[in-house]
Amino acid sequence: MHDDLDRLPGLLSHHAAALLAGLEDRPAAVVDRPPPPRRPLPAPTGLDGALAEFTERWEPGLSGSAGPRYLGFVTGGVTPAALAGDWLTGVLDQNPTSRLDSSAPALEDETTGWLAEILGLPSHTGMLVSGATMSNATGLAIAREWLGERAGISVADDGVGALGEITVFSAAPHASVHKALSLLGIGRKRLRTVPALPGREAADVTALDEALTALDGRPAIVVANAGTVNTVDFDDLGAISALRDRHPFWLHVDAAFGAFAALSPAHAGLVAALDQADSVCVDLHKWLNVPYDSAVQFTRRRDLQLRVFRNDAPYLGAPGDVPADLTPENSRRFRALPAWFTLRAYGRDGHRAVVERNIAQAHRLGALLETTPGWRLLAPVRLNVVCFAHETRSPDEIIRRASPEVFVTPTTLWGSPGLRAAFSNWRTSDDDVERAHRALLQ
């Protein structure tokens, strides 16, 4: 191992630099190549041998998900500064679970403070988690504790069974919300779907008002969206927040990537009322373009967050000032460092340029498809996702034939099968949009 350590900078930097240089030409997706067969652990070969085997057996099957024409899911790329921060994260290997041994938690505090500043969340504090799934689960766990506070109990101490019936409302919840409700013991069936506005994924606020009225004063949880995955639709956060004048409910907003609309003056109005939410989910490995995995959970009630996740472990430090007392994880990666680097390097203006360029590119692809015979949009292009279909070709056929030039993901919108192209990579150019369109037509 010591020999490998001495040679590591040359070996790794050469190989990683070659991968980085070839990223734009790497297949966007590898859909027809079977993975290598699994085999027993072989005899040791040292770093040289491991790197050679990885290059031969595994590297060809890995997608160009950090590249400019990977338009599947909502996957960001990695800015150069974020990549530098990620390399340093691995080298330093900090576990920011306690304030006793390093300044890593303080850097996390600064990073989440910067994010709150650019996203318009002055009333919130934030903690780093692994992704939108865990961010939504964390926010809903705090909401569950709030329900307990209203009933004069602590769910963290007495269990979810002490609460009795729990009601959650949402118009178009992400799959991770259902998973979080299952994980938290609330239950998937506790979620009641609120009618959406015609031709929209946004909640009908009048219908939500009526549903809350029917609870006759019983507290509830409302999950609103700031950017749905299919059509990037936004609930009217201001109108929903105003309902709290008449009804008691916790407002959790899933703004996994839509929160970054705040960076674009033309679209910031979509999230103008985001600070009124009680908890907010924001992904960083999407539109902030930092490496997986990285997200933030913001909340206005850190006291309840502490009640849910506290460790009661004196060896970690004074209770209430321990990062591990505020997230589901104790040991975790120093996720804040790549985000700190990209925010410090490019600032609000640099990331605003990425957001606005991606929005323009989505509108460009939408316009190209809309004027191409045989293709149709399943919904208007609102922000950075294009939802579309072909009259005769199936989504699976299109994905298979368009890859490896471009990768898009299948979906279903209002009962119609279709495809999604999500623009959230800083590398994507206008030429890539034209190449993606040609690949879809082939």
Automatic annotation (TrEMBL):
Keyword Lyase in record: yes
Annotated region described as Disordered, given as residue ranges: 28-48
Superkingdom of origin: Bacteria
Signal peptide start-end: none
Listed cofactors: pyridoxal 5'-phosphate
Molecular-function annotations in GO: transaminase activity
Bias-annotated ranges (Pro residues): 33-43
Family annotation (Pfam families): Pyridoxal_deC
InterPro entries: Aromatic_deC, PyrdxlP-dep_de-COase, PyrdxlP-dep_Trfase, PyrdxlP-dep_Trfase_major, PyrdxlP-dep_Trfase_small
PANTHER family noted in UniProt: GROUP II PYRIDOXAL-5-PHOSPHATE DECARBOXYLASE, MIP05841P
Family: Belongs to the group II decarboxylase family.
Protein name (record): Aspartate aminotransferase family protein
Native species: Actinomadura graeca
